[in-house]
Amino acid sequence: MGRYIARRLLQMVPVLLGVSVLTFALTNLLPGDPARAAAGRHATPQQLEEVRERLGLDQPLPAQYAMYMGRLARGDLGTSLTSRQSVAEELRLFFPATLELLLATMLIAVGVGIPLGVLTAARRGRWADRAFLGFSYFGVGMPVFFTALLLQIFFAGWLGWLPIAGRLGLATVPPPAFTGMYTVDALLAGQWTTVLDALRHLLLPALTLAIAGGSEVGRITRRSMLQALDEEYVRTARAKGVPERTVWLRHALPNAMLPTTTVIGLQVAFLLGGTVLIENIFSWGGLGTYAWTGIFRLDIPVIMGITLLATTVYLFVNLGVDLVYARLDPRIRYG
Amino acid sequence: MRGSTREFAMGSALFRRQDGRLVAGIVIVGMFVTMAVAPWLFTSLDPAGLNLEARLTPPSAAHWLGTDATGNDIYTRIVYGSRTTLGTVIAVLAIASLFGIAVGSLSGYAGGWLDGLLMRTTDVFLAFPPLILALATNAVLGRGLRQTVFAVAFLWWPAYARLVRGQILALREQEFVESARVIGASRLRIIRHMLPNVIDPVIVRVSLDAGFVALTAASLSYLGLGAQPPTPEWGRMVAEGQMFLLDQWWVAAFPGIVLFILVVGFNLIGEALGDRIGQPYRESRVAVPGTAKEKN
Amino acid sequence: MNAPNLLSCAAIALVLGCAPAGERSHLVLLTEGIPPTLDPVAADDSRVDNQSINLYSALLQYRPGTTDLQMDLAASYEVSEDARRYVFTVREDALFHDGTPVLAEDVKYTVDRMLALKIGVWAFFTSVSGAEVLGERRVAIDLFEPFAGFLGAMTRLYIVNADQIRPNEFEGDFGQRWLQNHEAGSGPYRLVSYQPGQQITVERFTGYHLGWGPRHVDRAVFRVLREEVARRIALVNGDADWIFVSSADTLAALAEEPGIRVNRDESLNQLYIAFNTQSEHLRDARVRRALALAYDYEGHIEHLMRGNAVHPHGVLPAGAECASPDSPRPRTDLDEARRLLASAGIRPGEVELTMAFEGTTGETPIFEIMRAGAARLGIRLSAVDIEWDAKLASFSRLETSDDMGTVWIFAPGPEAHHYLHALAHSSQAGGGGNNFAWYRSEAMDEMLEAAAAELDVQRRCELYREIESLWLEEMPFAAVVTMVAMSAQRENLRGSAVSLGHPLTQNLYAMWKE
Q: Which ipTM value was assigned to this complex?
């Protein structure tokens, strides 16, 4: 297993390199002049040249790429052209918000989706099954931006139960930063009202994403359960008189979890770069917002940084999915 | 991959059995296709006029679904908008699947270093955060429908390349290919014989993806990147109507509902077809680099 | 919760009686734009000015809601005979938030900084040559030539704390990096916390030189909420005290809500449409004039804005200095437009143009009105929906500039210079300037410079009359409408007044809750 992980980690390197080359090429095609952006609007031609030289923008592209990678190797993601802050620092600021949203979403999606999938498989064809299938069409088919609007109008506009946007109430002081995730930080600091406030704000955006994600997780679980129950070893187990409950939980469920794991992995991967919409609508101020402004302000180091971070997390999620696979399915051996 | 070794003649087994989902899906999608092809059958109004005096009027006999902020008939814009959405979906999937088939069959058939190189390339594309890639592509190419089609296709082709490669690899081991090789058929001929067997899974995959492509394209339009005004586009219509949601709810609600119906239609077809060859619901996007699935 | 605040409360309590901590007044203000920085040198951007006016002080300031100048950090000022040197004396009691006094040295640093960086508010001060410290609290600011708008522009030159910034300078950036998310001001409120892209929390600075009465707000939060419907719900639910409103429809709906008051304030914010004078089809002024005649100004004001906008006077907003009701108001005349096109040798269906606008801030209908007008002349207009920052980048080079584009002028004062020079002077073409029309005319440049240097109002206005005639002849920009500043608030909020010279900003010091 250790050797397998090491090999997989090594395999990530070329993918990351490829992604960095692709991003670098793409961002250098962006209209606009990064030297001008850094030097300021009224810089004299001479000042402009100085900045160009200082940032290495007078070098040919491959050399610029090499310089970027050289700095990257030292953990330096460069400086944002618009905010002049270290990109690594800004990522540390924005990423936890997205991570918090992502974790909450997956918690709901998995926590509700898997049990629902198993239960509806057990009640195949009955009303609960049909109701869930019907709902899941809704969940999978609804555009998230539309779900978000409906939830906002309903829970915040009409009922007034939940705040419409933001990460914390306006009177709430952010808890001391440790992880950057408000719920976790507030828990660690023992500030219970802040925990509650953060959760109330987290609920709507997470629910919006979890309706889509949970529907998919539920469907795939239901489906794989039904398939697994149809497999020979399950039939054998039943024939041997293994109690139905054990058949379900010990034999069918682990196998059914294989596709579910993959779907969960995919969801995480999609959410990583896909929270732009939701962050915009809920004023969440995470990676998505950062990417959005970075791209429209043509801030190349920012775009590079976000892409590399999202890709790295994605690759690790994949590795995680594969390791879960190995645990669940004795037929798969890594080595 | 499950079912990949089964042989399908093109389109044969796929549409034979009756399935309520398939029928419902085809009816829904068929209706939108008719709208897109012949919008004048549904409405006689101009989807992109300007009538400031009549802005934001509620649904009525004259305007079945009301009017929007520039006084255009929403029903008419929805009818014409089906053109935009279906056009995007078809263009994206055509580009992605054709390019994917080309790369996938080349990779699967050639094997060796070329296979390795191509597959590592798909790894890179699959690892790229999708929406960020789409945003960046739009920033580079400018905003517009064509750019959005390109950006989304850019995201989608690797999945097809991998699917086709998997099929080709499985087929290579099969008898009829072996015998063709023995009797000295040319490589091109062999690939030509193999392709029809690859098509069924691709069709299923396309039907499974269609709804998701429609959602992705609408999301980009919602962000202001896709079709530019005055071209009607549902995602953009939602975006422009959302500020009226509390009073003039019809401006955003109807385009959102219509988009939802189309996506459900696509998903019904996709699932029905997917079931027939045992390709689970949208697991097709699974082709993630180096997952265990590849190893068996 | 916060030590300095409790202390200050205790101090005030001795004199006036201070509300217990639980009843301290909070204000929540919801805005639309994400400020790109907290650095007040960028306060030409109203998203930045909104924070700056509360965190910083300038030497002079407008009385809230008016364009009357009053002393702020300055106790007095003198102007030299030739109007090229202004000597300011800083108030003795003016303090920065770190407790150190505001000195002449800080004013000089602020001026030097702006001149070296050449960004942001520098655009209002191109005539400034430098500053000289004359005494501990006496400082001179020198001009290359007289500039009529100088004192008005000074309201945007927010004085920064030199001693606090110097240690934080980085590679000659005059502290730009540090000021991005810190403040070094002497304004009524000091920064408590800043979450980029989300919110800014400020609280009372007890040492503020203009002093505190019993009613002022203790603490305020500016939060960015991009969706208008979300801002509206937050206000109605009581989660916010004041919100920015961009659509007349939202304003009309909010006017019906109990407990909510809507504000329709006069403003100097002016919308123009630029015609790229270098582009193939728009090179001929007759085509530009024809397009200007095709826009439905009446429909824009009456229907789209439901009356929450007014016709400009000529090329200036009605409230601007030198704006005259006798100037021709923009009008729609398709017949004349067609005649102009015909005389320019353009037949219907021949011309296709692009127009850039910001859909995310609700400008799509503006494009639609222009498109419909152009279509009636047989000119096809295609949309380029683009965010402000990207629009600025694309119009900074001729090759990437569109044929047409929307431009808003949010001027720092009522002087005509801030509109006409910012748009039509050749120095403002490209490189991030507002001359999206790439209009370069020696005659126009000379007239604009002469008008700016003319100190006599009468003569200055005569010069602007001449500029206006040339402008309408050449039509590099069509003046479209002057906006009415729309916002909404809870009824118990008082003192919210949009300052004409600080568009889209809220001056907390003037506000209180009943």
A: 0.87
